[in-house]
Amino acid sequence: MSVQVQVPQIFRKHTGGAKTVSAEGKTVREVLENLDKSYPGLRDRLQDGKGLHPFVNIYRNDEDIRFLGYLETEVHEGDTISILPAVAGGG
Amino acid sequence: MFKLEKRFAEEITDHARSEVPNECCGLVAGKDGSALQLYRCDSAEKSPYRYYVDPKDQIRIMRELDQKGWDLIGIYHSHTHTEAYPSKTDVELAFYPEALYFIVSLEKPEAPVIRAFWIIDGEITEEEVIVA
Predict the structure, then answer these.
(1) CATH number at residue A52
(2) Closest of B53, B110, B99 to residue B77, by C-alpha
(3) Which ipTM value was assigned to this complex?
(4) Residue A87 and residue B97: Cβ atoms within 8 Å?
(5) Does B86 sit within 8 Å of A87, measured CB to CB?
(6) What residues of B are in the A interface, CB distance below 8 Å?
(7) pTM to 2 decimal places
(8) Could you tell me which residues come within 8 angstroms of residue B17 by beta carbon, excluding any fewer than 6 positions away?
(9) Domain extent for A11
(10) pLDDT tens across B83-111, in order?
(11) What are phi and psi of A65, to 5 degrees?
């Protein structure tokens, strides 16, 4: 199962500057594991030991995986996985 | 130097005032470094000290930008009681090096101040804002 993964600018140093990369997997977890093989270090920016970093959001097409099956969310041929860090802060 | 159209400056200030006592937040879309449209966002964290653009708003807006061929050129939020300068949290959570971070301060409610900053790898660099 091949999907397109959209990588935000802040993480593109891991993908040689590429905005969109392809990865294999049946679930988001597998896609991230396979991505890390091609682009070492990328997964550590997205996940900590427990799961997704609290300020990283991942979407399957337009849906936040936290409202689907989280890291076990199934992916299908042709899906787009988007990684979007939170827009957050506070004074 | 960043030229911010008066209508956008007013919109940011209006948004900030309408969310008091909480912080407001939104995205600035544009092309070639010029602002074309502001997107007011819901904050998933309604607080005087925090903002967090609702992830549902964020993906919807990012898709719209892709369709229009626009870029995310800025992110704005308000400081309700402090100066228009990035806080420690603002710096820690600055994940968009390509965006200019606009902060509107309502510290003096009758005289709001908008300033803008690049926040890259923890470094803050101010960009002069000219409202015209």
Answers:
(1) 3.10.20.30
(2) B53
(3) 0.93
(4) no
(5) no
(6) 23, 25, 27, 41, 45, 47, 49-53, 55-56, 58-60, 62-63, 75, 77-82, 86-87, 89-90, 92-98, 101, 103
(7) 0.94
(8) B106, B109, B112
(9) 2-85
(10) 999 999 999 999 999 999 999 999 999 99
(11) -65, -15
Find tokens 């799961």 and name the residue: A51
Q: How close is the nearest chain A Cα to the Cα of B7, in Å?
A: 23
* CA-wise closest residue to A59 among A89, A24, A88, A86: A86
> How many of the other CB atoms lie within 10 Å of CB of B42?
17
C-beta separation of A60 from A31 below 8 A:
no
The answer on pLDDT for B65 being more than 90 is yes
Q: Which residues of B touch A81 (CB under 8 A)?
A: none
CB contact under 8 A, B90 and A9: no
Q: Give the mean pLDDT of chain B.
A: 97
The model's confidence at residue A91, banded by pLDDT at 50, 70 and 90, is confident
Task: Report residue B131 CA to chain centroid gap.
Answer: 15
Query: Is residue A59, in this structure, part of any structural domain at all?
Result: yes
**Tell me: the pLDDT tens digits for A32-75?**
999 999 999 999 999 988 899 999 999 999 999 999 999 999 99
* Closest Cα in chain B to A59: B59
CB distance A86–B41 less than 8 Å?
no
A47 domain-assigned: yes
Triad B16, B22, B27: Cα angle to 5°: 50
Is A91 within the bounds of a domain? no
